[in-house]
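pls read this stuff:
=====
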Amino acid sequence: MIGTFALILACISFVIVIGGAVYEHLAVVPVWASAVPASLSMFQPPYGLAAANFWIPIHPVTLLLMAASLLLNWRSERRNFIVITLGGYVLVLITTFLFFVPELMVLTQTAFTQTVDPGLTDRAQRWETLSLVRLGFLLFLAVALLWGLSRPGRRPDMAAT
């Protein structure tokens, strides 16, 4: 029962991550990536967008919930689904830390001007395309995690123990 509850919380947290990513790709990224640096006004002080306030806390919470659900579901049919999702998510986070965040910082911290830099705009659009691939991979992982939630909480051969 506690393993199921932990996995439900991990699923909710992971779906929140995906919801944030979908929102950014529909409402935020197309705007700032459209004509860099002229399109970067949404990041300008004093009321600039602070997406890190969402992303920085959600990832550790999601990782902890997934790790706890893995431990609590270790002896169940759910284990492999959680391992796949957790491993894929860690891979996504490493890629994000090594490529996506540094590139995003270079792009969004470019000095604001009313002109458009075609080179920076191309980089921003490449970032957006690669980030959509990353989002697709996260969606695949979410299906795996939710599929795992549909599996029994105990393996049939372990039911009597």
User: Anything to note?
Assistant: The CA atoms of residues 89 and 138 lie 7 Å apart. The radius of gyration is 19 Å. Residues 2-154 form one domain.
